[in-house]
Write a structure and sequence with these properties.
The chain folds into two domains: 152 residues, Vaccinia Virus protein VP39 (Rossmann fold); 46 residues, no CATH class. Helices cover 35% and strands 18% of the residues. Strands 6-5-2-7-8 form a five-stranded parallel beta sheet, sandwiched between helices. A three-stranded mixed beta sheet has the order 1-3-4. The protein is α/β, with parallel strands linked by helices. The longest helix has 23 residues. Bound molecules: S-adenosylmethionine. The site of S-adenosylmethionine (SAM) has 17 residues, from β5.
């Protein structure tokens, strides 16, 4: 079996992990108290292997999916996706065989739209917190649009401001194509630029 390659992460990624864990805990407390909500889910669409090596200490630190598993009260279901098969397999091995945890090896956009979002219908009183944490601006706009329209899914999108400024901000908005594409050929959508504040006349993020 191919050996899993863990990421070495800087302090800013550790801060991110901390923020996401605190947010997920508050979300779970709130959802658990809503009597009409029958199920609240955690979705980690770019889940990673479940642990990283800290650049500061050289020690292993838990990644976002393992942090989510520690949240109290617990999420009713966790859906963890990674394109890298060795990472998905390692994540499953670390977590063990649990029927509340679903691990997918596949592309986040496809798995979210074709499988996971179908379990989060507003009408079924299901709600979800969905973490989008890609390396680059590689999320298809359709994912964010669909989550927004469903009203049942809260999206936590982590992206690099430098990436947004370099790839999405156009100094001359008149030249922006009707359907902008990201670095992997995926649709970013003009509305991605709208939510990012990167439309006409927008200034780079600071
Ligand atoms: C920034 S890391 C995720 C870190 C993790 N959220 C954490 O904080 O512990 C991004 C992950 O996305 C995975 N990935 C890259 N492209 C992907 C895709 N199209 N679909 C799903 N996963 C992808 C990579 O293999 C990598 O493990």
């Amino acid at each position: 079996m191919k050996k899993v390659k863990y990421d070495t992460i800087g302090y800013w990624s550790e801060v991110k992990l901390d923020i996401v864990q605190k947010y997920a805990s508050a979300y779970s407390v709130i959802m658990n108290r809503q009597k009409e909500i029958s199920k609240h889910l955690y979705i980690d669409a770019f889940a990673g292997a479940g642990q990283h090596i800290s650049k500061r200490s050289g020690e292993f630190v838990p990644g976002s999916p393992l942090n989510a598993l520690l949240v109290k009260p617990p999420f009713k279901e966790l859906h963890l996706i990674d394109l890298d098969g060795t990472r998905a397999t390692d994540l499953r091995r670390t977590i063990g065989d649990r029927n509340d945890v679903f691990v997918y090896k596949g592309d986040a956009d496809e798995v979210l739209l074709q499988q996971v979002f179908l379990r989060c219908h507003w009408e079924d009183f299901h709600r979800a917190l969905c973490l989008l944490d890609p390396y680059a601006l590689s999320v298809d706009w359709k994912v964010i649009e669909t989550a927004g329209k469903m009203r049942s899914i809260e999206v936590f999108y982590n992206f690099m401001i430098m990436d947004a400024n370099m790839n999405v901000l156009w100094r001359n908005p008149e030249k922006v194509p009707a359907e902008p594409v990201g670095p992997h050929g995926q649709s970013l959508g003009r509305s991605f630029m709208a939510i990012s504040g990167l439309c006409k006349g927008a200034r780079p993020f600071r």
